[in-house]
Records
---
Amino acid sequence: MYKLQKVIGLSVAAGLLLTGCGQAGDPEIIMPDTPMQPSAAVSGSVAAEPAAAGEAQTEPDAQAQGQTAGSGEAHTVYLITMDLADSYWQSIDKGCRQAADELGNITYKWIGPDTHDDALQSACIDQAVSEGAEAILIAANSAEGVNGSLQKASEAGCKIIYVDSAASFDCVTALATDNEAAGKTAADSMKAALAERGITSGTIGVMGVTQDTASCVARETGFRAAFEGTDFVLADTVYMMDDAANVRNAVTAGQGAGYVAYFGTNEGTSVAIGDAVKTSGRDDLVVGFDTSDAMLALIADGTAYATMQQNPERMGHDGMVIAVQAIEGTYTDTNTKTDTGVTVITADSM
């Protein structure tokens, strides 16, 4: 009954950026067969100065540039991410703060766990509700693990908006990359680069975060599907499990086994692969995800061939706008899905 809507848009916007109560994995978007499109009117904006992770941003100037929330009534909105240390989440926070400044009268707070854990993220949801959140923007740790707390939040009247990764609980909207399609795009980039090197067969290493990080699993699904019918073999996935040494050791083992390329399904695994390849001094082909400073540096110096750039700042900005509209009753759709796009970044395109 539910499926991913597969529409990949190209959006060129490089955002590099951190996060707040504990860390978790990214579940895939589970949406209706025929999702409605969001109707939020979104204006351009000027980036606000970063606030400390977990710190509330309260009541911006009502005359802030951009659109207003509608009624001018103050609202409390929380962002809850999977962890507080990934630059990707900082980009989402930046987009939220931009929109809060534009809208005015928003009490905004960013929290999250410090490790990948459903129970810790559930505690963050409970905290937000107890502190009066009217809407929660959340990058869910897993598809099912935080549903109990989301149910309680919904019963308390809290609007649920997913950014980057969704649980299977009903929401107002989900703003994210179509991860399966993005994984296929990554595979197509790798196949082209392998062809340029004259490589037509061999084993490719695949690195993920955890087995239940669903957004990364969806990327891997798209990546593996794109290699079906070729002479390449994709190795069993190695999971980082909050320890970059797991990936670095796997790369070293892959080099010993003659792997021809490596794919990382998120920023952490991609950087760990690149660091291992750089330390070895070899010219292995690396394709990854996300555009942190560390990942872009690996692209710039030629260690990594390409990375898939998502648009987390837009997720935060548009998610905040829709959250306020949902609170005020001007956005009444439910379970909609917005694909925020992916762009292939190589050294030539930087």
---
Amino acid sequence: MTRFVFDFVLDHPDETTVKILSQEEIQSTQNNTERHTDNLCPYAVPTVKEIVKLIDDAAGFHDKDRFLSDLFCCGAISVSNTVDLLQASEREEHYKQIMSHYSEKERVAMADIFGKLFGLLTSVVYDDGVFSDYLGEIFMNCNMGNKSAGQFFTPYHVSKLCAKLAIGTPNKADGKILTLNEPCCGSGGMVLAAMDVLQNDFGINYAMDCFVDCSDVDLRCVHMTYLQLSLAGVPAIVKHQDALTRKLYSVWKTPALVFQYPRFKKFICYT
């Protein structure tokens, strides 16, 4: 597997080097209908539409639901195994088991799709990056919502409004760590919206001053949340857990948490 590189921009460049987007351009970017290449991100940011098409083409004769689940699982494992060495061997075997069901051509296609996902999800860490629940959008655009389970991911603008109302005005005391708990995290959209508000409305560096504990009973949602929070640089522990019975199945630690473990260890709970 390709080595995961954790890339996070903390310095803000001189304003004269940044193109100021109009409201129409911002809305267009949020809708992800076009890409802006003249920004701080060093690569062309893939679009949700582009990725959904690749998934439709690559799924082929496979059940699309299973293909998408395997894509998220293998993506999560490829990130986790670069930092969580205690669980790497077991997860690597699971990765190999999943890949054994696909042809070489399909594996290449899956790797290409994950490369696009990687580019899209890491783009938010740049100063002009646009936050959104990209995996939630991809999931719903692939018609993967579970109607019988009432599984529909909240539109990002609604998540952001909820975050603004819930957060209020946070304290910015030096060294204070803000904590957030999300027991039914879905694809992680609510958490991302909270990080968006903390960073862009209050100037809080969530990569250093926030800790997130989240969980979901749906393993696919765990993988989606883990990918989105990992690639956005959020210190978080993501649990595959039943929120009602508290039964715990697995734990996923984001790179930002592992890299700063001494700073956040007192907040970590495995129950």
